[in-house]
Amino acid sequence: MNGPxxxxxxxxxxxxxxxxxxxxxxxxxxxxxxxxxxxxxLIIASEMKYALDLDRILFVLAARPPHKxxxxxxxxHHRMAMLQSALKGQPDFEASDIELNRSGVSYTADTLDELTxxxxxxxxxxxxxxxxxxxxxxxxxxxxxxRLAEIGVAARPGxxxxxxxxxxxxxxxxxRIHLVETPEIxxxxxxxxxxxxxxxxxxxxxxxxxxxxxxxxxxxxPCEGER
Length: 227
Prior knowledge:
The protein is of the alpha/beta class. It has one domain (25-186): HUPs (Rossmann fold), CATH 3.40.50.620. The chain has helices at residues 39-51, 76-87, 108-118, 130-135, 142-148, 163-169, 189-197, 208-216, and strands at 25-32, 56-61, 93-96, 122-129, 149-155, 177-181. The chain has a 6-stranded parallel sheet with strand order 3-2-1-4-5-6. Strand 5, helix 6 (163-169) and strand 6 (177-181) form a beta-alpha-beta unit. The radius of gyration is 18 Å and the shape is globular.
């Protein structure tokens, strides 16, 4: 059964989008600092893959996200090692270092441009949370983002977006934004870092290999560990 109607959108997507014959490969682009990657990320990715009929998902490790320029971020090689470990054995999930290999701030529009040049036969769907969708008109070059990719939005309880205002600000977005009902997951990377720093367990909130990696490398400990 479909979810509730929200302003500017007829229905939230809860069934997989119909696949047309001879369509391009559909690739989800899931960006983030993944500091660390946790079970919530993997559940959301799985839900989005099903609902949006994606062939695979690229987990793009952000190097210098524009909204976190003042935040200390764990070193690239630790975050990439954890990301690759979490995705091991899942052929439809792939870690991407495309932003790590590019200087400057990590803008989504630039990443999608580069992915399109590298994979011209792929159809990209950029994945985001509903709270990020609300801010999309203020992102760097949102018109280019919508030209290069559709948008898959993980609908979050308590967050409502007036899609009509998004369409007014970015006319190209009409018909290219798909809302997907996803489970409410009370896990965040910030909470995990804080739990580790205070000696609390993170079992079952991150995959076990990630729990081991954090412990073995002393990550997220106050004034300790390699960053």
